[in-house]
Structure formats: C-alpha cells, structure tokens
Design goal:
437 residues; alpha/beta; TIM Barrel; Immunoglobulin-like; 8-stranded parallel barrel; 5-stranded antiparallel beta sheet; binds alpha-D-glucopyranose
C-alpha cells in the first residue's frame, strides 16, 4: 500500500494496479453506474446550531462545550419512511448518509464509543437503523459516509507537532482499531450497504508550495480498512473523497462540487479522471451540506437537472445533498426540488438511468448518453446552424424527438452523421433527440 500511495499522488497514472475487484464488487460497480442519481444526507448534532457541519471548527467552539449538544438532540419529527418516500420521489436510486462526521458524533448505535445517538442523546433511537429498514422496505439502496478525521477524540492525531513520531503512530493505531470496529458495525447491523464513502483524508495533506507536487506522508492504513469492507460485504463499494488519484481498493472516484475533469470548486488535486472506477460528483442543493438556516441560495430545478445531464454525459453519477433540520425534517425547499426532479425523471429517466457516456465528449450544444440500441442527444443549447454533426459513422434506423416521437431529418455519410434540429426548441432544461440504432 505505501508504495502505491507514493506512486499515485499528482501522477496521472492511476495507482490502482494490482486491485482486482471481486465479481460481486465488479457487478455492484456496473449497477452503481446504472443508478446515475443518489441523494446525500448530512445530518448530525451540528444541525442544531444551523450553521453547517463545520460550525465547531469554523467558530472555534471548544469540544468540551460542543459535546454537550447531543444532550439536547431530540429530532421529534424524524420519520425514516417519510424521508425515504420524499427522496424516492426524486427518482434517486440510492441514499448516502453521514454515519459520523468530522465532529466525531456517531449517528448510530456503536459499542466503540459513548459519543453516539444512543448513549449521549435523549432521542436514543438508532436513526441509521430506522433509515436502513425504511430503505429496505421501500426498495432503495443505502450507503454510509464515514469521516476519517475526528475533531474530538484523544487518539486521533491532530497535533502537527507529533507528525511522523512514534507517538503519532501509536495514537493512530488505536484510532484505526476504533474505526475498523465502527465499520464492522456499519457493515454488520444494517443489512446490505452499497458503499462506504470516506472523507477527511485531505486533513493530512500538507498544502504544497506553488509548483510543488503534493506529498502523501501519512499512512491511513487503507489496505486494512478497504479489505475489511470488501471482506465483510463483497459487493460494498469503496469511495474516498480524497481529491487525488485513486488508490488500490477503491471502486468509485469522487469529485466534490465538480463534474469530472473540472476543478471549479478548487478541491481537486488531480485532473485525472478514472476510466476503471465508477465516478460520482457530489453537489449541494443550496450552498451547504449540513443544515444552514441562512442559506437561501437554492439552485433552480432546471439548473439541478442540467447538472445531472452534465454528470451523466461524463459517465458519472450525481449525489445531491439535503441537510435535514434539527427537528428531523428535510427542508421544504429541498423536498420540492427533489419532487420536481422526480417528475422530469419519470418522463425522461430512460435517457439517463442505465446509460453510459459515449466516446464523444460533451459538445457545445450538450451531451450524449447511450444504452443498448439507443443514443440520446441532450441538447442544452440550440446548435449553431440548426444542425448537430456527430463525427463518426452511425448505422441509425430512426431519429426522433424524444418527447413526441416526431421524426427528425438526418443524413449519414461515410465519416459522419448529421441531425437537423427544429428551430425554436426549448433548452431551459434540454431537448432530447433519440437515435434508434
Ligand atoms: C467536505 C467537507 C464535508 C462534507 C464533504 C461532502 O469534504 O469537509 O463537510 O461532508 O465535503 O462532500
């Protein structure tokens, strides 16, 4: 593992050589690619302060004080079945929820710590268990976000002064045991889990000087963690939001707030986009992950669907976040947007779900998706001259407007394929053309 870590960072060569996913994991990865759309849930005791999940760190709240929050955590309106129904209405195929965020509070019944919802809150209900049961009842997959970083525990080596010392290694060995115990619980007590989604790796990456390559000089023990996951549930995928080149044992490459290949959010430490791993972009509905009472920067429904088109056209999934309130309800603004996305997907989902990107990269007019016998052109800007040219030979039988089935004019030549797009098309979201092969 150490050598693979050393070879990977900043290097466009993927460091996953040697990792051969099991048949179960390979099948789960294809299924994950088919799923295309999931809903992220950031929920923890931080939601009570209503200023996002980083509030403790950002406002330098002493852990001693912060850790009193769970004593008042009683989300009286929490109803897992309602959450799942609201999320399913969006068309999403999976849910990824924070089991334990950087504040270290476990939102599930863990024997590895008392700082959890059962021992430290009056609510005393395992919300992950209730959610898992509701997901299984209503037929949607469940994934767990898990923070590698911890702002409170004594054994998490936070102090940079002890970096690379025996003290750091000793502390981390204990902390790693704790994480493995929790991961074992998460993969034993909640039924089949689709993915463990790690976050926080970047906490141990020193900011490189301009022009310098990033240096990974902390050993998280991923070999142990990843093989534990794959042995407990062979079809459970591993994703890590480390913003760098994938390493062995990972099945999903994650892009935070960016579509693969772009780095507008500034988190990406590599421009590398894996062709081996499944891809996933996570985005917020407003600007925040955890509930933020002042954040009214809600994205519009067309904007959200166009993000889904952008990810689908790049072979990636979209994981769209909701931040439930302290009372346990998903904010109404989110519920409404999810429902609208669901309406669009119930009419147009067959052009998204189960598709893959084509070899033709996103174009100025939009993106392409394809599945057995079909290519879909998602026209997001009216093409110049009213014509779309695909620069390859295509044996098409029929070309039609997806919404109405009305035939569209097309021309095949030896080297390309052109479709005439009607004038005045509505590209508020997209105009879909279906090509039957
Ligand atoms: C970042 C943040 C974290 C959030 C995550 C979601 O890594 O630290 O708060 O959970 O992104 O992508």
């Amino acid at each position: 593992m150490a050598s693979a870590l050393a070879a990977a960072p900043g290097d466009v060569k993927e460091g996953i050589q040697g990792y051969v996913p099991t048949a179960e994991a390979a099948a789960a990865k294809e299924q994950f690619r088919d799923d295309k759309f999931g809903v992220f849930i950031h929920w923890g005791v931080y939601s009570m302060l209503a200023r996002g999940e980083w509030v403790m760190f950002n406002e330098k709240i002493p852990y001693k004080e912060y850790s009193k929050l769970p004593g008042g955590f009683y989300p009286s309106k929490f109803d897992a079945d309602r959450w799942v129904a609201q999320i399913k209405a969006s068309g999403a195929k999976y849910i990824t929820i924070t089991s334990r965020h950087h504040d270290g509070f476990s939102m599930f019944d863990t024997k590895a710590s008392d700082y959890d919802i059962i021992d430290a809150s009056p609510f005393k209900r395992d919300v992950l268990k209730e959610l898992a049961d509701a997901c299984h009842r209503q037929g949607i997959k469940l994934n767990f976000y898990y923070s590698l970083l911890d702002w409170g525990r004594d054994d998490y080596p936070r102090d940079p002064a002890i970096a690379h010392t025996d003290k750091e290694r000793e502390m981390y060995a204990k902390y790693l045991d704790f994480m493995c115990a929790q991961i074992t619980e998460l993969l034993t007590n909640y039924g089949p889990i689709g993915c463990i989604w790690f976050d926080g790796d970047w906490a141990k990456i020193k900011k490189p000087a301009p022009g310098e390559q990033i240096k990974i000089d902390f050993d998280w023990g991923y070999e142990r963690i990843y093989s534990l996951i794959h042995s407990l549930q062979p079809s459970c995928l591993v994703g890590n939001n480390h913003h760098r080149v994938p390493i062995p044992g990972e099945d999903i490459q994650i892009f935070e707030r960016d579509i693969p290949g772009e780095n507008q959010a500034g988190y990406g430490r590599t421009s590398h986009v894996s062709t081996e791993l499944a891809l996933e972009t996570c985005k917020t509905l407003n600007k925040s992950w955890g509930y933020d009472i002042k954040d009214e920067n809600w994205k519009s429904v067309p904007e959200l669907i166009r993000i889904l088109l952008a990810t689908s056209g790049r072979n990636a999934n979209l994981l769209l976040n909701v931040g439930p309130q302290p009372d346990g309800c998903i904010p109404e603004e989110s519920v409404v947007r999810l429902a609208e996305m669901g309406k669009w997907l119930s009419a147009n989902g067959e052009t998204i779900f189960g598709t893959r990107a084509t070899m033709l990269k996103p174009q100025p007019w939009g993106v392409l998706t394809h599945k057995e016998g079909k290519i879909y052109l998602h026209v997001m800007e009216a093409p110049e001259g009213g014509v779309i040219t695909l620069p390859f030979k295509l044996k098409a039988k029929k070309v039609k407007e997806f919404a109405t089935g009305a035939p569209l004019k097309f021309k095949k030549t030896k080297k390309d394929f052109t479709v005439t797009v009607p004038s005045g098309i509505d590209c508020t979201i997209d105009y879909i053309i279906e090509i039957d092969l």
